[in-house]
Amino acid sequence: MPVPRFRTTLAITVFTAGALAVSARAAAPHRVLPGETLWSIAAANNFTTRTIAAFNGLSVDSAVYAGQTIQIPTDAEGAAALASAGVASGSSSTSATAEASHTVTPGESLWSIAGANSLSPGSLAADNGLSADSLLIIGQTINVPASSGSTSTTGTTSIGAPPPQEHPYWTSPIYCPLCPSGEAYLASNAAAAWDAMRQASQRVYGIDLYPGGPFSAYRSYAQQLYLYNLYLSGQGNLAAAPGTSSHEYGYALDLADPSMRTVVDEIGANYGWAKTEAPDEWWHVNYVGP
Ligand SMILES: [Zn+2]
Fold first, then answer.
1. pLDDT tens-place string over residues 166-208
2. What is the distance in A from the centroid of ligand 1 to the CA of 213?
3. Domains of the chain by residue range
4. Ligand 1 mean position, distance from CA 31 (Å)
5. CATH, domain range 171-287
6. CB atoms within 10 A of CB 290
7. Distance CA 18, CA 30 (A)
8. Which of 17, 54, 76, 234 has its CA 20 to 30 A from that of 180?
9. Are 70 and 29 spatial neighbours (Cβ–Cβ below 8 Å)?
10. Threshold 0.85, pTM exceeds
């Protein structure tokens, strides 16, 4: 009696191993989800951004869009794509631009890392295949290029440094641990409602609510223009034309973490906060009023 049982188990094991071996041989298509970047897709598949970009015939700073299909190569296919693109695989030491890798620590942002290395956030973001308002994750590795002349080596349009934070009289500060100043701004009524919702979130869910960085709440016209220019040059996410974004009215906020969105969906209506704009951007919530 034990003999046929053993045979059955063996047959299943062999079949499973065979199926895995076959599936690992071919490139696999990946449908881009909202919020994903070339970098995040590459990281999720244990590839460098350069490898995924080369295999798909894209530049490392290409923006990807929800619904777009990106091919994920096998290790061999990825290495071949890098070689034909003129980039040595497995090591960055032979590339023309000296690069150091930096591991993100709590409280850091693209702005703070760029500032510490005399780089513009836009060029640092582009070098890592990120948009300038991308959120960094603690433990994430960021490639930091040598600062001198680095903005011209990729051949992308230079957008310049981001405009500084402003604080118009009709706005009020909100808590922003990822902002250089520790504060972001919203229209005063939206800020009061935000603070009340934040306290409820901490009390009921144990989740703090805050924006992802200095571009993630109120934006001046100059800041919106900066993001719009990044978008037009292919270096940033889709951004509304200046004069048309609810961020410029202090009535929108880009959340730092998906768990925060869950809270806004649950209790936001009690505080006038909702998700009625930018359906492809989970992080974007807006003040609709009482
Ligand atoms: Zn937004």
1. 889 999 999 999 998 999 999 999 999 999 999 999 999 999 9
2. 11
3. 2-84, 99-153, 171-287
4. 23
5. 3.30.1380.10
6. 9
7. 23
8. 234
9. yes
10. no
